[in-house]
Amino acid sequence: MPKLHVRVLRQRPDTQARYDHFDVEVPDDANVIDVIEACWRQDQNLMYRHACHHASCGTCAVRVDGKEVLPCIVPLTACKSTDLVIEPLRNFPVVGDLVVDVSAFFQRQAAAGMVITRDAEETIDGHPFQPSELLQSDGKLERRHYNRFENCVECGICLSACPTLSATDGFFGPAGLAAVHRAWEKSTNATERAALLDLADRDGGVWQCHGAYECSEACPQEFDPAEAIMDLRRALIQRKVAALFGGGR
Amino acid sequence: MPAPHVVIVGAGSTGAACAHDLALRGLRVTVVERGEFSNATTGRNHCLLHSGGRYAVTDQESAIECIDENLLLRKIMPDALELNDGLFVALTEEDLGFKARFIAGCEACHIPYRELTPAQALAREPLLNPKLLAAVQVPDGVFEPWRFSMAFLATARSNGAVCRSYTEVVELVRQNGSVTGVKVLDRVTGKTDTIGCDLVVNAAGPWAGEVAGFGGIEVPVQPTAGIMVTVGRRMNNMVVNRLDKPSDGDIVVPQRTTSIIGTTSWTVTDPDAIDIPPEHIQKMLHKGIELIPEIATVTTRGVGAAARPLIKRANEDERDVSRTFECFDHKRDGVEGFVSISGGKTTTARGMAEKLGDLVTRKLGLSVACQTRTTQLLSYRLFYA
Amino acid sequence: MSLHSTNRARPRKPWQWIDIRGRRTGMWAFALNRLTGIGLVVYLYLHFVMLSQLFMGRAAWDGFVELAHSPLVLAFDVVLFAGLIIHGLNGFRVALNGFGIGVRQQKTFFYGLMAVGALLLAISTYLIFTL
Asked: Chain A contact for B362, CB < 8 A?
């Protein structure tokens, strides 16, 4: 049972932020979320978000020693020492302690319109998956692809890591633009595709990215928002060049 | 006259679905949750959208509830589910002996099923234990628990419900033998205030006993913990179950980029202080490897445990306690304006809410029918709209 | 739905632009770009002030040219040139990324360009002090 010394950034909307110190003991194989929970057991006023404890809900994102992580999948053995500093995400309004207000974030995610289920990979480790015959509600079989939830868990880590967002609120943000890219990639409807590119082209869209790639570095799900942003830029440049030479939009 | 006001305590899948049901019936609804929405029992569950197959032999009441709700949720929550069916896999002669009972159970509970040969099963799930003897396909599915609840809350909110997280009930307000409101502590402001209402719904899951205790009432809830071990890679697309009676480590649920091995079952006294026994983790991995040997090659990604709010009945082992639910009208305890709902599963949340909504409207002297069967749920993202 | 939300984080402080704690290469690139960008804008105005010496007559201008050859100002020229190179090359990288070029190799790209920049700077420093 390692003994840990934890400093947690505590605050409320109307109070000055301060670090509270907690001494906790957790099992050897604990993850950082268990440490936060141990702190909460000592002080139930400590506000933090969590739900699934396996990096699917995306609620628990915080900064541990300055770096954005999903504490539910970071083992203590991956931490540098038994002293931890836990702070809320940057670039979000703070509701209290480690809880940030994700309203604006989800409004943008909704505008981006990414559907959260998609076709599952054709292969896992080179084993081909056949398009399957799946049961319908009436018990009949239907041939369709396996589906699965998107990689992006909408945790907000990429927004916290984004230097552009540290300078302005106007930026749509990596997750939102990656969602636009995903929706654009998947759509087969030309009007919808054009509208999604328009969204990416607007003030606060892809052009405001400074190419720091911190979003992709920080992403716990290997979603690579930066590459999505650059791909949208490429598509927009292509469209603009085509328009310049009378190719329509 | 304004519509009656109902306060729901707890915003797990049950509380969220109840909020949706009651808001749709035109009631004024306030949901209070002491932490993040569905942070506990619902948040940390299997993510299994039950076909009912798991209970087809041992608990047919639950099995029928599951298949009914499963087929219904597919229609009203289409985008938030992974619908790849499930396999019940026989690995031993003993498992194989269970197959006939399993199929009879599926038929009795009208669960669609299809028998697969080992070759057919392996063609669909190449990482299954190649020594399998038989498999049965049923319409299991997968949901994302937090988004599942948020879809209900988003819809409730669009129908006028007020949803307050980080708001903890500290007292039931009583007047002349009736509950007339709740006193809550707002963790953001640190202030307590009283929310007056016509009726309080106790949907606090494993904490239902504690909440009812504020009114000196007993709810026979038995917090029963279970652990989930999530591995570092997605191993399967279909839910993989052991073809046997429910037992420890008999299921591997795929989700997003991972697979989740579940689960164990032990009674806890305090659902806030669940210490995960390390041997349970080892047991999960060991049993998971029996189903999908490849699990031995990947790292463990996350481990979680939460307490289920099973309903206590005399002389039952916790594995045999029915997974169905119950509504308690505390009129039977001499208290008006207070009902509890407990037990059940996330899969059956909507059905539970329908029963509760019927009870609540009856108690309030209203006659409005439940409309949740045919109402499309909003995206979870619109909760923040 | 608008891109801009009314929901704002706490007022940001400019030091956050160069807060590289917990960050990787990309943040260095961003911070350097911000700093050099500000530097270049300041220099632009300084440049106008210098040019305005032309209006003050020949003597004033000759005096300024004299000053411009002092080692201190030459050192300043090196710093200025460094800023120009860093800002220009980094901008070049981001622009090419936008065309889909070097997206996956962006880190190598950054280090490569900075190496080229260092070489250019060494050459130009030599030229500035010898010509």
From this structure: no
Helix A225-244 and helix A174-186: axis angle, to 10°?
60
Class level of CATH domain B5-41+146-220+322-384:
alpha beta
DSSP-derived secondary structure letter, B385: -
Query: Quick count: other Cβ atoms within 10 Å of Cβ B379?
Result: 21
Residue C11 confidence (pLDDT): 60
Chain A residue with CA closest to B233: the answer is A124
Smallest CA-to-CA distance from B261 within B225, B304, B221, B223 is with: B304
Chain A residues touching C100 at Cβ < 8 A:
230-231, 233-234
Of B81, B127, B144, Cβ closest to residue A56: B144
Contact A214 C27 (CB under 8 A): yes
| Burial status of residue C122 (CB atoms within 10 A of its CB: 0-12, 13-18, 19 or more) | exposed
pLDDT band at B113 (very low <50, low <70, confident <90, very high): very high
Q: Is A169 within 8 Å of C9 when comparing Cβ atoms? A: yes
Interface check A142 vs B, CB under 8 A: no
Of residues B303 and A123, more confidence is placed in B303
pLDDT surpassing 70 at residue A131: no
Interface membership of A238 toward C (CB under 8 Å): no
**Subunits that touch chain C (at least 3 Cβ pairs < 8 angstroms)?**
A
Give the residues across from B90 on adjacent strands.
Answer: B134
Contacts of A210 in chain C (CB under 8 A): 29-30, 33, 94
- Residue numbers of A between 209 and 248 with CB closer than 8 Å to B: 221
Residue A130's pLDDT is what? 63
Specify the CATH number for the domain of residue C50. Answer: 1.20.1300.10
Which residues fall within 8 angstroms of residue B121, CB to CB, at 6 or more apart? B87, B89, B128, B132, B135
Q: Which domains does chain A have, with CATH numbers?
A: 3-100 (3.10.20.30), 103-120+141-244 (1.10.1060.10)
pLDDT digits (tens, 9 = 90+) for B186-214: 999 999 999 999 999 999 999 999 999 99
Determine, for residues B84 and A132 on separate chains, whether the beta-carbon distance falls below 8 Å. yes
| Mean pLDDT, chain C cut into blocks of 10 residues (131 residues total) | 43 73 83 91 90 82 83 90 94 89 87 94 91 75
Chain B residue whose CA is closest to A46: B187
Domain that residue C98 falls in: 24-130
Architecture of domain B85-142+222-311: 2-Layer Sandwich (3.30)
A vs C, Cβ pairs < 8 A, gives 108
Alpha-carbon distance of C95 to C103, in angstroms, equals 10
Q: Please answer yes or no on whether C19 and A166 come within 8 Å at the CB atom.
A: yes
Cβ neighbours around B313 below 10 Å, total: 12
